[in-house]
UniProtKB/TrEMBL annotation, chain A:
Gene3D superfamilies linked to this entry: P-loop containing nucleotide triphosphate hydrolases (3.40.50.300)
Name of protein: ATP-binding cassette domain-containing protein
Keyword GTP-binding: no
Domain ABC transporter: 5-247
A GO CC term assigned to this protein in UniProt: plasma membrane
Stored SUPFAM superfamilies: P-loop containing nucleoside triphosphate hydrolases
GO molecular function ontology, one term from the record: ATP hydrolysis activity
Entry keywords, A to Z: ATP-binding, Nucleotide-binding, Transport
TrEMBL record, chain B:
Gene Ontology biological process terms, A to Z: amino acid transport
Similarity field: Belongs to the binding-protein-dependent transport system permease family. LivHM subfamily.
Main location class: membrane
Species annotation: Tritonibacter litoralis
Keyword Transmembrane helix set for record: yes
Record membrane topology: Multi-pass membrane protein
Keywords associated with the record: Amino-acid transport, Cell membrane, Membrane, Transmembrane, Transmembrane helix, Transport
Keyword Cell inner membrane: no
Name recorded for this polypeptide: Branched-chain amino acid ABC transporter permease
Subcellular location: Cell membrane
One example GO MF annotation: transmembrane transporter activity
InterPro entries: ABC_transp_permease, BCAA_transport_permease
Pfam family membership, one: BPD_transp_2
UniProtKB/TrEMBL annotation, chain C:
Keywords: Cell membrane, Membrane, Transmembrane, Transmembrane helix
Organism annotation: Tritonibacter litoralis
Pfam families (UniProt xref): BPD_transp_2 (PF02653)
Keyword Protein biosynthesis: no
Keyword Membrane found: yes
Protein name: Branched-chain amino acid ABC transporter permease
């Protein structure tokens, strides 16, 4: 499989705090991989760096062999790297369909036209088809701000896919989705993405979901990669069991206590 | 050399006046996140109240010394009454709303205050020159300066010092600093933020009124002075970083010196110079010299 | 070309109605209509920026730039041709707004509001102290000519009026299309969540810059038309209190429809005439109170009382005064 994204010795510091260091990762075309690690382990920092939101303090990010360090987020998106957010980043006062129409409009051209009508029947059809793929077409006319968290998550992810990215980062797609719905939710999601040939990297705290949906797992601990490999191997790794999964169980009980 | 001294002295004078007129604006923004356009209204109220009261007092033929007491009294009176009415009557119902919306709200309040001032004092100009005249002049290298100018510099230093002391040495002040620095931390520490708002607004309003009241003896008090000051006060606090009190000191000094330089070297550019400095500062520091930290979004 | 929507038909019909009004109504009334069409265009400039969540407290800058550019061309170059003056006004605004846009497009929310105010006050300061331009008194404009046509008296008044009405209608139609265009949609998105706009692959800075320039050009057209109909310009045009009045109109009328600020400007103009006569010292108090009440009870402006959802208005029928996050 071809490597589409490669990071070399990626590092990011905030003042004296090292948020991420020595991150070396290779992502292949079309693969699905899970990322685990407790809060503050550097997972989101890694995604923020690759998508251009945070410039790395040092290191290299190669996309199809070319460096993307220093490019603004929008240019990286246009190259085919998209992401969803742990807290959905939506246009809250607009309807679901309008959110999708805006995403499609932007995907259609970097420099917006001034006099052409943006919304065409064809564009509306595409937006509806996308919503349908994620099973949220019946929410199309509702204002995003009033929707349940799970639906907002799906809208957020659907918007990240409109540009048909080659690489998609999902930042905790199942956070905020209730425990018994998580499996189905992730099933819908992965099925919807399967048809697109997109490489998917998702950050996840639920080991059952990781085991079910990703053949490969990367474990983050204290800003760097502790283990990277086939899921069964990584999850059986002693260090991972001690530092990452142990922490997860701890975290899980906290979350269920309503602290989240 | 002579010009340089003149620029320095005049610049300090301007700076003192600007600091007094704008520190309340930055304090209110820092604590409440309200960019209070009505601040110009407080300034005008303070100026009218003090000019009017001094005028009445001087008619009685009493010694001028007591007129100096009238200035702070009228400032506190104007600031507290108007501040209390506005904060309790309108603003408290709108806390937590969008910052831009609050600008529009305070703009509406500014318009109302302007007419309240006109209804109370009419549209004639008021002059209360006696206190300014009473302090005589001081010669520096042959240039006469009014003693009143130095008094304003003194008041600015005292007010700035008092604010600094109050914020760094009292419990309330320290808590206020926490609110300015980080609202989320403030909330989680269990600070009752809204209770501080009333106090802050009254202090800010009074400072604005004091700026006007102190200026009254030096100028002719006419309608429109509130609209003028708010623009300059805004330049000051933007340069310093909105919400930062040390920023207001630096901003006032920068704007004051820029204006004095322009007045002495090329008068037509007076207003222009202020914004030129502002643009220069913003080109380097987009949110001012002591910008408040913003929370991360993702 | 896309087909005209309801708003555009209303605007097209408005033109003959405006002409008929000029023939039927008393001339003082016609004057107010003409003046308010000029200022109405500036309000439209404020409105399209507000759809992107940007409140310009300095739109008077371009109102003034348009008026002064036309006025100075007349005063110093002896140009009287309406079309040349108009083009000069727009070109001046275009150049200035492109340059200033590089600074302002970085700012949002209160910073945008206050910095737009600040730049308009720079011009105010400059004009107030330029003796050659009459300082705070300003100066008079020539009576315009039209290509090879130099009407006088009633004919001159009517020509200027008709052109003012026509230009206003054209500008409003163009802006209505801009609101429904991809740029218009992206502006709505910027108002709601700029981070997402960047992550979708669009430059918010670019969209804001373009919108700022469009608003400037429309406002400058308003400035030229207003200045020519009054025959006079002065620095008050760019005082922030003038800009505040434009913001007031848009808050009151709402941003739901392009026609709303135009109608709002006219009604306000008429109201002002009476209020200033009856009680000059409470006019601003009335304005302030009405504005407060509108913000509290009708956050989407008076237009929302029309009770219909103008679906053709692009993605959002609301787009009210809830700028930014």
């Amino acid at each position: 499989m071809t490597v589409i994204l490669e990071t070399r010795a990626l590092k990011r510091t905030f003042g004296a705090v090292v948020a991420a260091h020595n991150i070396n990762i290779q992502i292949h075309a079309g693969e699905v991989m899970g990322v685990i690690g407790s809060n503050g382990a550097g997972k989101t920092t890694f995604v923020n760096m690759v998508t251009g939101y945070l410039p790395p303090s040092s290191g290299e990010i190669l996309y199809h062999g070319d460096s993307v360090v220093g490019l603004p987020t929008r240019d990286i998106t246009r190259k085919g790297i998209c992401r969803s957010f742990q807290i959905p980043q939506l246009f809250a006062e607009l309807t679901v369909i309008d959110n999708m129409l805006i995403a499609l409009t932007i995907a259609n051209g970097a420099r917006p036209a001034l006099m052409r009508r943006a919304v065409t029947p064809e564009l509306e059809e595409r937006a509806m088809a996308l919503l349908d793929r994620f099973g949220i077409a019946h929410h199309a006319q509702r204002e995003v701000g009033v929707l349940a968290q799970g639906v907002r998550k799906l809208v957020d992810i659907a918007m990240a896919t409109v540009a048909e990215p080659q690489l998609l980062f999902l930042d905790e797609p199942t956070s905020g989705v209730s425990a018994d719905e998580k499996m189905d939710f992730m099933g819908t999601l992965i099925a919807a993405l399967k048809s697109t040939q997109t490489a998917v990297l998702f950050i996840e705290h639920d080991m059952e979901i990781v085991e079910t949906f990703s053949p490969r797992v990367v474990a983050f601990y204290e800003g760097t990669i502790l283990a990277d490999g086939p899921t069964a191997e990584v999850l059986a790794n002693d260090k991972v069991r001690e530092f990452v999964i142990g922490g997860e169980f701890h975290r899980k009980s906290e979350t269920e206590g309503g602290v989240h | 050399m002579l010009t340089a001294v003149a620029i320095a002295v005049d610049g300090l004078g301007f700076a003192a006046w600007l600091f007094l007129s704008s520190v309340g604006l930055t304090l209110i923004y820092g604590v409440m996140r309200i960019l209070n356009i009505a601040h110009g209204g407080f300034y005008a109220l303070g100026a009218y109240a003090s000019a009017w009261a001094i005028g009445l007092y001087m008619q009685t033929g009493q010694p001028v010394a007591l007129a100096f007491l009238i200035i702070p009294v009228m400032a506190v009176l104007a600031g507290t009454v108007a501040g209390l009415l506005i904060e309790r009557g309108v603003l408290r119902f709108m806390y937590g709303r969008d910052e831009v919306l609050m600008v529009l709200v305070t703009y509406a309040l500014f318009l109302i205050l302007e007419d309240v001032t006109k209804l109370i004092w009419g549209t004639d100009s008021y002059v209360a020159w006696q206190p300014a005249y009473a302090l005589g002049t001081i010669d520096i290298m042959g240039i006469p300066y009014t003693g009143y100018k130095f008094m304003i510099i003194g008041v600015a230093v005292v007010c700035g010092g008092a604010l600094y002391w109050g914020l760094s040495h009292t419990r309330v002040g320290k808590l206020l600093l926490v609110v300015i620095e980080d609202r989320e931390v403030a909330g989680s520490l269990g600070i009752n933020v809204t209770r501080f708002f009333t106090v802050t607004f009254l202090v800010g309003a009074t400072l604005g009124a004091l700026g006007g009241a102190l200026t009254a003896p030096e100028i002719s008090v006419v309608p429109g002075i509130g609209a003028e000051i708010i623009v300059m006060a805004f330049a000051v606090i933007v340069i310093g970083g909105m919400g930062s009190i040390p920023g207001a000191v630096i901003g006032a000094l920068i704007v004051g010196l820029a204006r004095a330089t322009s007045v002495h070297l090329y008068p037509p550019a007076e207003l222009f110079s202020i914004y030129l400095v502002m643009a220069a500062v913003l080109a380097v520091k987009p949110y001012g010299l002591f910008a408040l930290a913003e929370g991360r979004k993702i | 070309m896309t087909r005209a929507d309801k708003t555009e038909w209303a605007l097209i019909i408005a033109f003959p109605v405006l002409i008929a009004a000029a023939l039927l109504l008393p001339s003082w009334m016609v004057n107010y209509i003409q003046v308010s069409l000029g200022t109405g265009l500036v309000a439209l400039g404020v409105m399209i920026q507000m759809r992107a969540g940007l409140v310009s407290f300095g739109q008077g800058l371009y109102f003034c730039v348009g008026g002064y550019a036309a006025g100075m061309a007349g005063k110093f170059l002896g140009i009287t041709d309406f079309f040349v003056l108009l083009v000069l006004g727009v070109v001046a605004a275009l150049v200035i707004s492109i340059a200033l846009g590089f600074l302002l497009r970085r700012y949002r929310e209160i910073f945008f509001a206050m910095l737009s105010l600040a730049v308009s006050m720079i011009l105010y300061g400059l004009l107030s102290s330029s003796e050659g331009l009459g300082s705070t008194d300003g100066f008079n404009l020539p009576v315009p000519t039209y290509l090879f046509f130099a009407p006088e008296g009633d004919a001159a008044r009517m020509t200027l009026y008709a052109l003012t009405a026509a230009l206003t209608v054209i500008c409003a139609i163009v802006l209505n299309r801009v609101l429904r265009s991809p740029l218009g949609m992206i502006n709505e998105a910027i108002r709601e969540n700029e981070l997402r706009v960047e992550y979708l692959g669009s430059s918010a800075h670019y969209a804001v810059h373009v919108t700022y320039v469009i608003a400037a050009c429309v406002s400058s057209i308003g400035g030229v038309l207003w200045a020519l109909s009054l025959g006079h310009v002065d620095p008050e045009m760019t005082n922030w209190t003038t800009s505040g009045a434009f913001v007031f109109v848009v808050i009151l009328a709402g941003t739901g429809n392009i026609i709303a600020p135009l109608v709002g400007t006219f009604l306000l103009e008429i109201l002002r005439v009476y209020a200033v006569e009856l009680s000059p010292n409470t006019w601003q108090m009335i304005l302030g109170t009405v504005m407060l009440l509108t913000i509290i009870f009708l956050p989407k402006g008076l237009w929302s009382l029309m009770g219909r959802k103008p679906k053709a208005q692009g993605p959002s029928p609301d787009g009210a005064v809830q700028p930014g996050e």
